[in-house]
Amino acid sequence: MRTVLMVAEKPSLAQSIAKILSKGSCTSRKGLNGACSVHEYSGSFQGQTVRFKMTSVCGHVMSLDFTGKYNNWDKVDPAELFSKAPTEKKEANPKLNMVKFLQVEARGSDYVVLWLDCDKEGENICFEVLDAIHPVMNKGSVRDQSVFRAKFSSITDTDIWNAMNRLGEPNRNEALSVDARQELDLRIGCAFTRFQTKYFQGKYGNLDSSLISFGPCQTPTLGFCVERHDKIQSFKPETYWVLQAKVFKGKDTPLTLDWNRVRVFDREVGQMFVNLAKTSKEAQ
């Protein structure tokens, strides 16, 4: 019987998908890393009866970092981090032994179905998983497709079954765009963090200058906060007028209405609406 390995992004997601696809008949066990469980059951795939193994990762399998000597702040000019410094992929969380765990579970598998999150980060993790398991999977015919990608937007029975019945392929270009973003974040973030930390050390007594981090994501967010703060500080109140109306019907409690326009800053315009309201005898 052939084996299909299925990989989700989080343990809880793997459990939910396995429960739906197995209709609650799967058996579960802990993986060797203790963090990820493996859910197993039999079913149909590509017109044949197979054994399914559903498991997960815990986010990114790999992370990007500089090679050893470039992590020494005192011996490396921050400017070198922009171009000269080589990078390498390392396990994102070595304590999880995620690569070894995936290889143990993938050994002897014939197919893999990737249930990673449906965004660019998820596509990137797809290829991190494939890099880890490809060497230990069974080698099928050149014409046989062995890698499949599930696309889903919610964890409902209907959506999961639709994804399983409409499997596609992972998108390498989207994965590569994440690789590029990771390298930019690493080079820019490390170079500027090291530069400004060294630059500000000892210059201001009340500044905790042990580490002054910089990141392409942090900087625009900080800009939004500063811009909003400046607007609040420079705010000048203006007088405005609001139309307040009540509708009466017999002896019923009057109904207070909200004005769709909310407010006006011109009193004459407000008075015009008041006059219009006063001349109305009915409201719908």
From TrEMBL:
<keyword id="KW-0799">Topoisomerase</keyword>
<dbReference type="Pfam" id="PF01131">
    <property type="entry name" value="Topoisom_bac"/>
</dbReference>
<feature type="domain" description="Topo IA-type catalytic">
    <location>
        <begin position="171"/>
        <end position="284"/>
    </location>
</feature>
<protein>
    <recommendedName>
        <fullName>DNA topoisomerase</fullName>
        <ecNumber>5.6.2.1</ecNumber>
    </recommendedName>
</protein>
<dbReference type="InterPro" id="IPR000380">
    <property type="entry name" value="Topo_IA"/>
</dbReference>
<dbReference type="InterPro" id="IPR006171">
    <property type="entry name" value="TOPRIM_dom"/>
</dbReference>
<keyword id="KW-0413">Isomerase</keyword>
<feature type="domain" description="Toprim">
    <location>
        <begin position="3"/>
        <end position="153"/>
    </location>
</feature>
<dbReference type="Pfam" id="PF01751">
    <property type="entry name" value="Toprim"/>
</dbReference>
<comment type="function">
    <text>Introduces a single-strand break via transesterification at a target site in duplex DNA. Releases the supercoiling and torsional tension of DNA introduced during the DNA replication and transcription by transiently cleaving and rejoining one strand of the DNA duplex. The scissile phosphodiester is attacked by the catalytic tyrosine of the enzyme, resulting in the formation of a DNA-(5'-phosphotyrosyl)-enzyme intermediate and the expulsion of a 3'-OH DNA strand.</text>
</comment>
<comment type="similarity">
    <text>Belongs to the type IA topoisomerase family.</text>
</comment>
<dbReference type="InterPro" id="IPR003601">
    <property type="entry name" value="Topo_IA_2"/>
</dbReference>
<dbReference type="InterPro" id="IPR013497">
    <property type="entry name" value="Topo_IA_cen"/>
</dbReference>
<dbReference type="InterPro" id="IPR023405">
    <property type="entry name" value="Topo_IA_core_domain"/>
</dbReference>
<dbReference type="InterPro" id="IPR034144">
    <property type="entry name" value="TOPRIM_TopoIII"/>
</dbReference>
<dbReference type="InterPro" id="IPR013824">
    <property type="entry name" value="Topo_IA_cen_sub1"/>
</dbReference>
<keyword id="KW-0238">DNA-binding</keyword>
